[in-house]
Write a structure and sequence with these properties.
single chain; 124 residues; mainly beta; four-stranded antiparallel sheet; 11 strands
């Protein structure tokens, strides 16, 4: 079971990025997918998750406006669209998979599988 993020990079403030997460060895039919963010000097923070049970998504309150989680029909890819990027969005973005009986949440301890992360740097 592996997860691999891509799509990070250096972008100017106001720009957009679409991060991708590819699952190998399993499908998101049985696992919820979550996106998390580790900013320099801060604790890891949940951004969004998408449930395997009904496809519903949830967002951290501070992330609802500029972040959009989605998946594709193959159930092996999950995406995170980030719009109007700000310098404070800089950090490492992680994709994770976890098993939930019902809807997902963004408690990182509930996620068993993690990707290595992709760096996002936003310049002012």
């Amino acid at each position: 079971v592996q997860l691999m993020e891509s799509g990070g990079g250096l972008v100017q403030a106001g720009g957009s990025l679409r991060l991708s997460c590819v699952a190998t060895g399993f499908r998101f039919d049985d696992y919820a997918a979550g996106w998390f963010w580790l900013a320099p000097g801060k604790a890891r923070e949940g951004i969004s998750c998408i449930s395997s049970t009904d496809g519903s998504s949830d967002y951290a309150d501070s992330m609802k406006d500029r972040f959009t989680i989605s998946n594709d029909g193959s159930k092996t890819r999950v995406f995170l669209q980030i719009d109007n990027l700000k310098p404070e969005d800089t950090g490492v973005y992680y994709c994770a998979a976890g098993y939930f009986l019902d809807k997902c949440n963004m408690d990182s301890s509930e996620y068993s599988y993690w990707g290595p992360g992709t760096q996002v740097t936003v310049s002012s």
